[in-house]
Amino acid sequence: MSKISVRPGGRRSRARLFLGGACTVVLVAIAAMLPGVAHADTTVTTNQAGTNNGYFYVYQKDSPGTATLVLGAGGRYTLQWNGVNSLLAGKGWSTGGRRTVSYYSTFNTTGNAYVGINGWTTNPLVEYNIVENWGTYRPHGTFMGTVVTDGGLYEVFRTVRINQLSILGLATYYQYWSVRTTKRTAGAITTGNHFDAWANFGMHLGATHSYMILATTAYQSSGNADVTIVPGACC
Predict the structure, then answer these.
(1) If phi over 0 gives left and psi between -120 and 50 gives alpha, with beta otherwise, what is residue 223?
(2) What domains can you pick out in the chain, each with its CATH number?
(3) For the segment 119-171, what is each residue's pLDDT rounded down to a tens digit?
(4) Please, are residues 90 and 216 in contact by the beta-carbon 8 Å criterion?
(5) What's the burial of 88, exposed, middle or buried (CB within 10 Å: 0-12/13-18/19+)?
(6) Of 69, 57, 182, 179, whose CA–CA distance to 129 is shortest?
């Protein structure tokens, strides 16, 4: 496990996250997704969640715009989107937790989109994101501190969603964010280091983990991504 260093936010001014469609897409109840089992090189264009070559995948998009997710071998997926309002798609695990996620990727967008870990917990309900790369908008919110891990500095933010869609339906819940200060397209993400840093800042995850994926999220943009989770990522 990589070394970790955390620093609280202190008196730094608080920024507010623009809570637009980039977040809305990930707030859809799992129960509303269409279950399925996909195979290598399967194309997905409708809202669903399922399994593919040992990984869990999610595709969720609202209107307008188009997006095509191609599920490749192992942990690979490609995604192309055009004029979407909000979109989330990716591969990972049906149950999140402490894991080292090694990956490599290409990522291009003309607008607001980002690549990183997206997951949920319940009891309490929390959505979390570890952002590795982004387009024209870098996610932010109420600044809580910093964490140094996996060769980079991440700024930690907290936001709140009030009576918005979630994996449990309409609810009020926190969003936790770790956002790299410099973009990267490959590396390792030690999720447990972020969990520990968040806890040090009073940001506690729920007792029960739902899914956790290496996702591409887009809002009012077009672009493409090619993302591969390296086999053998350890827990």
Answers:
(1) left
(2) 5-229 (2.60.120.180)
(3) 999 999 999 999 999 999 999 999 999 999 999 999 999 999 999 889 999 99
(4) yes
(5) buried
(6) 179
